Amino acid sequence: MSAFLKPIAMPITHTPVRIAMLATPAPESAALQRFGSGLRQALNTYGADVTLVDVGEVARLSDGDAAILHHDFHFHPDADKVVDILGEVSVPSIVILHTVPKHPTAQQRSTIEAIADAASHVVVLSRSAAGQLRDGYTVSSSAVTTLPFGTRVSRAPQLKRPSRPTILTWGWLGPGAGIERVIDAMEALRGLPGRPRYVIAGPTHPGVLAAEGEAYRESLVERIAQRGVADCVTIDGGDYEATLTTLFQQASVIALPYDSTDLTAAPVLAEAIARGRPVVATAFPHAIELLGTGAGSVVVHDDADGFALALRKVLTQPRLSGSMAAEARQMAPEMDWSVVAVGYVGLVRDLLAQRRMVRW
């Protein structure tokens, strides 16, 4: 049974809380921006009135009942700016920690501890993140709440899958995605019944593109040629956002071969669970947590043969893949934005009640 806080979505029965949310710095299609947009829309539906505040208008964060900010080391390498902003906020503040390194540098540790000290409360997006925060940082457990990584659970009708089984990896491309693992695995998988194909969907990450151009994508194309698997591997750099539902419904299995060993919040993993798809992933903490009850397989990072074997099992054992998909569908509702938003609203109301008690 999940240890997540599991509020029940219900109609609004009292005045919505007013929340000011600091805009994320990420480009329009980035995971952080997608998360912020999804949370904002859900809060507006389930008990809150949310105002988006630009970073140049920090004073407006105190205009509501509470303020919500995000912190992610991919976009905020140090705490100075976030802590400075928190110092100017006069209402209860919540910081959502999108990354909690398992083996933090001294700077990363001091960053998170400074943020937790300055904020009224912090939210982490997985139990693994809460555990890493408890074990590796000096942060009061009473100031931490775990709420699932929110996503929209698919209710679209199931499409007929293509005759060729499809392995899917999607998202922005860049070093660390681990796609090489699956390209290499296709040498052993290409001869399976139905001639499986591997679809890599997504443009190059803007930061990678600015620094290195298309060198990473070109290295993947070269690897595909070297392995002789061009007939079963496709790299699609188009607008995957517009076709995401179709991509998921056509996929037999989602491959998450990430290099990271301390990833505690993986947006693509949350999306895969929400869409009811089996997953094969490397053993990063969020995957170990969400796939541990049977929604997928987790393989240690240095076991290339093990990753290929896990994919083979899903592709050739319908009963196994069916049970994985069923477990994912069972888990999905607690990750739906309608449920997650109620958790945030409840947290805000608790913080407001605590403040009133202190003043009284």
Automatic annotation (TrEMBL):
Pfam families: Glycos_transf_1. Keywords: Glycosyltransferase, Transferase. Residues 155-330 form the Glycosyl transferase family domain. It is an enzyme of class 2 (transferase). InterPro entries: Glyco_trans_1. One of its GO terms (molecular function) is glycosyltransferase activity. Its EC number is 2.4.-.-. The keyword Transferase applies. It comes from the Bacteria. This is Glycosyltransferase.
